[in-house]
Amino acid sequence: MSEKLWGGRFEKSTDEMINDFQASINFDKRMYREDIEGSIAHAKMLAAQGIISAEDADKICAGLSKIRERIDAGEFDFSVALEDIHMNIEQALTDSIGAAGGRLHTARSRNDQVALDTHLYMRRQVREVQRLIVQLQDALVTAAEKNSDVIFPGYTHLQRAQPILFAHHLLAYFSMLQRDFDRFSGVYERADIMPLGAGALAGTTLPIDRRFVAKELEFAALYSNSLDAVSDRDYLLEFLSAASILMVHLSRLSEEIILWCSREFSFVELDDAHCTGSSMMPQKKNPDVPELVRGKAGRVIGHLMALLTTVKALPLAYNKDLQEDKEGVFDALDTVKFSLAVFAQIIAGMKVRREQMRRAVEEDFSNATDLADYLVRKNMPFRQAHAVAGKLVHHCIERGVWLKDLTLDEMRTFSNLFDADIHDAIRPETCVAARNSLGGTSPAQVAAQIQSARAWLDSHR
Questions:
Q1: Does the annotation count 278 as an active-site position?
Q2: What is the pTM of this model?
């Protein structure tokens, strides 16, 4: 006869290779707290409903608490032969307290048990991800405050476009992360549904009280359909989707920091503690952390694609394929949390080279739009003003000068609407200050964005 807890129907023991292939203990053991927490709530409910005795429930709860202490202390030996975290804990409980341990699994299946563990685990982990998002947002706002007067070339198509405040650029990432935070709130909401009581797929014949367990575990809702309860992985897909979008945002910021650190840009310098060197080239200071985050974005996106592919054609209800949900989710969690944590340090330690940024906006044509707007304010149609500005830029390129280097007389050969105030109108400070539309890059608008960001952070700590 099989030695498995489920082995009553079997005459042979499971092949060792099959044991190794199907065992999940090497990765699902990280959910031991949730497994024990759920089992304690389940035991209390069984006793409250008269399904097991209060004495057995007390033994079960005390035994589970001692097992948790052993695992916390690193004194628990996990067995691959027992397949998963549930069987490992149940066997240890039975070994510890005897027959009462065998009553714990009454009115439940590993199908709804693992679903419960994963819901509990995701609730806790989502809140941790959100905490780290807020930590990175705080670093971005602090950097924006410290560099609120730094003018920076804004880009489109990776070509200098218009001068902006560097703080304005940083706050764009704050806004992206704010949406990420909100997406994870949605993930939490979908994880905050209690599946236990669904049994293997059809519920149970015993008089359980699912609402009792939901209240014990502080779930906001219960699954209304037992088939859905054991087969739903939408909340994990939503987590991986939110994680992928977050990692795309971090990848974009990584790419920009990598560019800014290059000699060609020289806009920022990362702290020595956050970079590495070359084993061959002694001059190198490599932005390895942003490069790794940029690369790990693909890893998280891959986990999303893998789980979508796993569940895309599964019939109801539980199938062993669903065991494949955890490794990718766990790895994505670890990757996202690590990336957020290190990025907060990167931003906090980043040195901004304001003089280099200033030189960049003085030695380009990013003020050409402001020159056209100057003519528009003189009542020239925009399309005509655009053409005049373009001709002036072409004239400067041929002469090897910038718009600020042209004399008023030279400008008037292109339009007699130019007056002595034109040179002030195309100064970087003027260009930035003029963009005072809501959400724009003017100092007043950026100050308002910083104030709003601080208020949001204060309400989400």
A1: yes
A2: 0.93
